[in-house]
Amino acid sequence: MAKKWYAVHTYAGQEDKVKANLEQRIETFGVKDKISRIMIPKEKIAEVRNGKKRIYKRKFFPGYILV
């Protein structure tokens, strides 16, 4: 049976905390076989400010986690 993707809505900026909490609960309840991956889609952005190149990661969907 193919697994499905679900979008989980969170408060913007809290995605990493929610991901860690979900991973802990998955391990605690023993459902690793049902949930294979949790991800926060990000992209790398290169920006030049004040003559300095800065690379940072920006979230594609702020406030959402894909499970």
TrEMBL record:
<feature type="domain" description="NusG-like N-terminal">
    <location>
        <begin position="2"/>
        <end position="67"/>
    </location>
</feature>
<dbReference type="Pfam" id="PF02357">
    <property type="entry name" value="NusG"/>
</dbReference>
<dbReference type="InterPro" id="IPR006645">
    <property type="entry name" value="NGN-like_dom"/>
</dbReference>
<dbReference type="InterPro" id="IPR036735">
    <property type="entry name" value="NGN_dom_sf"/>
</dbReference>
<dbReference type="InterPro" id="IPR043425">
    <property type="entry name" value="NusG-like"/>
</dbReference>
<keyword id="KW-0805">Transcription regulation</keyword>
<protein>
    <submittedName>
        <fullName>Transcription termination/antitermination protein NusG</fullName>
    </submittedName>
</protein>
<dbReference type="GO" id="GO:0005829">
    <property type="term" value="C:cytosol"/>
</dbReference>
<dbReference type="InterPro" id="IPR047050">
    <property type="entry name" value="NGN"/>
</dbReference>
<keyword id="KW-0889">Transcription antitermination</keyword>
<dbReference type="GO" id="GO:0006354">
    <property type="term" value="P:DNA-templated transcription elongation"/>
</dbReference>
<dbReference type="GO" id="GO:0031564">
    <property type="term" value="P:transcription antitermination"/>
</dbReference>
<keyword id="KW-0804">Transcription</keyword>
